[in-house]
Amino acid sequence: MRRPAAVLLALLPACGEEEPAPVPPAPPAPQAAPESEAPPGWPPKHDADAREGARRRMVEDQIARRGVRDAAVLDALRVVPRHRFVPKDLEPSAYDDAPLPIGEEQTISQPYIVASMTEELKLTRTSRVLEIGTGSGYQAAILARITPHVFTIEIKEKLAEAAAKRLADLGYATVRAKCADGYFGWAEHGPFDAILVTAAAPHVPPPLVRQLKPGGRLILPVGQPFATQDLVLVTKDADGRVRTKSLYPVRFVPLTGALEDRE
């Protein structure tokens, strides 16, 4: 509710008294930049490196040829240095057409899967996005090339700390990250235009559906752990009706935390 503007009453000085010096107006209170405006330092710039050719070939051979067409997604995959998000000994394999282990029994997804899931979200530069399962931080960096409004949750403390530092070191200062159980989402920063889950659940978590805006899109693998799952797109229309659509089979590590305990 907007407060009424203060009204200043001018008092005439008494006879023989000096008129008091006028009080300068207070400076206007700083305002947050609208979400349509790019915050300072976004998107981050990356120095040239010896693997630029490998990234271009990855995008052309593994991603564009499989049907990903979103220009912002393709550009993000060309720019983000994927080799900085894998263990040092796996850097030569960073641009291979395969997932890679990152420790703590977790993986960084195959580049095509990262691109395809991101494209399904239909992001714009003003989209608010929640990622469940930060992992090494690569998917969060891809999202943050498209929009500065990225929130990411990782349940494994070592991965969460390492990913937050890595993202900060690479200039992704707009990404908000925390260590928590992603099953419950991040309600205080919602609702979200898009939610992306990078681990498999046996069902769509209801807290995530509640935190999805009308018109929003949620993508996640649904199925049993260590088996073939369905990549599912959940949409919520303007009236709040929820629909699901199975896209294609995938294999992801399981979502852990409260959901794992229940199962």
Sheet bearing the most strands, described? 7 strands, mixed
Q: Approximately how much beta-strand content do the residues carry?
A: 15-25%
Averaged pLDDT, please?
88
CATH topology: Rossmann fold
Number of strands: 9
- Name the shape in a single word: globular
Secondary-structure element string: HHEEHEHEHEEHEEEH
Number of helices: 7
The value of Rg in angstroms is 23 Å
Structural class: alpha/beta
The parts where pLDDT drops under 50 for at least 5 residues are 1-24, 26-32
- Assigned CATH superfamily: Vaccinia Virus protein VP39
Assigned CATH architecture = 3-Layer(aba) Sandwich
Biggest sheet strand order reads: 5-4-3-6-7-8-9
Fraction of residues in H or I helices: 10-25%
Compute the separation of the termini in Å: 45 Å
Question: Could you walk me through the main structural features you see in this protein, from its secondary elements to its overall organization?
Answer:
- With 263 residues, the protein is α/β, with parallel strands linked by helices.
- It has a single domain (52-262), classed as Vaccinia Virus protein VP39 (Rossmann fold).
- The protein is 24% helix and 21% strand.
- It contains 7 helices and 9 strands.
- The chain has a 7-stranded mixed beta sheet with strand order 5-4-3-6-7-8-9. A two-stranded antiparallel ribbon has the order 1-2.
- Helix 1 (52-63) packs antiparallel against helix 2 (71-79).
- The longest helix has 13 residues, at 157-169.
- The model is unreliable at 1-24 and 26-32 (pLDDT under 50).
